[in-house]
Amino acid sequence: MLKKRIALFVLSASMMLTLIPSSTFASNVKDRPFSFYVNSSVGYTTAARAKEDRSSTYVKINQVPVTYIYLDVQGFRPSSVGGTNYWADETIGGTQTARKGEWRVKQNVYENGGRSARLKFKRFTQSGTVSGVWSPDSVGNAPHLN
After folding, report:
1. What does the alpha-carbon distance between residue 53 and residue 26 come to, in Å, rounded to a whole number?
2. Are residues 64 and 128 in contact, defined by beta-carbon separation less than 8 angstroms?
3. Residues forming a β-bridge with 44
4. Per-residue pLDDT reduced to its tens digit, 65-124
5. Angle 106-107-111 (CA atoms, 0-180°, nearest 5)?
6. Is the sign of the CA dihedral 10, 16, 19, 21 positive or negative?
7. Residue 61 in contact with residue 88, Cβ under 8 Å?
8. pLDDT digit string, tens, across residues 2-47
9. How far is CA 86 from CA 67, 90, 119, in A?
């Protein structure tokens, strides 16, 4: 009788565990603000932040000059020569044209060995302020920019 109860308990517990959805949580998802006055096509970057998984980068753009801004995600990747690191555009599809809104940006920072990421903004047609919040890793279902 005791063996049947234990077997029933183990079976019930294992069934309960299979019903609990398993989730993968991105690591560095705390949003940090950014704000730049962009007046050239040189580019303005956020501070580097740890990139801790393969998820898309999250950005919520609250303000742009005119309608759009150029945006890319850069990764601090290792060089094959000399063991030094360098910043590279890791945005899938290259620099994107972004407007106000919430976006996930597909990139290959982590996949290419980078463990730090930053955003780079460049003027689209006119100078002005770009501002919002971002995180190197993402959760949620904001639409992809690319």
Report:
1. 6
2. yes
3. 121
4. 999 999 999 999 988 887 789 999 999 999 999 999 999 999 999 999 999 999 999 999
5. 130
6. negative
7. no
8. 665 555 455 454 544 444 443 445 479 999 999 999 998 789 999 9
9. 31, 12, 15
